[in-house]
Amino acid sequence: SALNRFLRKLLTWPERKYFYHRFADNTKWSGPEANEGLQKAAQFLAGRWAAKEAIRKACEHLGASNGFHHIIILPFASSKASPEATSRPQALILRDRFCEPTRNPPENATSPPVDFDIESLDGQLCEVSISHDSQYATAVALVPVVEEWQPL
């Protein structure tokens, strides 16, 4: 489908699993709640696109065509946050492109949102803020300059 092709272009597989898990109730997108479900999914994807663009533009080593799969944006759970608060996103900028596993994990809501070892990835964390206003999504990325890559 067009949605799956778009998701594969924009998101790494852990991010796609998170997307499917988060929008599990909206996967059918039909009936009276269809518009609201589509709107929330579209806002999420617009925010991720804006965030990855902000990060890509802040990183000299990421080109226009290869940046999206060098960046993983997932929620960061804070121990200080209230239980009803949503987790803030945080980005990991990878040294190398994040490759699909040889056996593709299932991309559906029944599997856990993420089941990979983030500690095994070589990259740097950066702060990202994503905002939505009406029909627009904006993002700001704070990417520290690293002279030489350091393992996490």
UniProtKB/TrEMBL annotation:
Keyword annotations from UniProtKB, A to Z: Transferase
Gene Ontology molecular function: holo-[acyl-carrier-protein] synthase activity; magnesium ion binding
Domain of life: Eukaryota
InterPro entries: 4-PPantetheinyl_Trfase_dom, 4-PPantetheinyl_Trfase_dom_sf
Pfam families linked to this entry: ACPS
4'-phosphopantetheinyl transferase domain segment(s): 5-84
Protein name (database record): 4'-phosphopantetheinyl transferase domain-containing protein
Annotated source species: Bimuria novae-zelandiae CBS 107.79
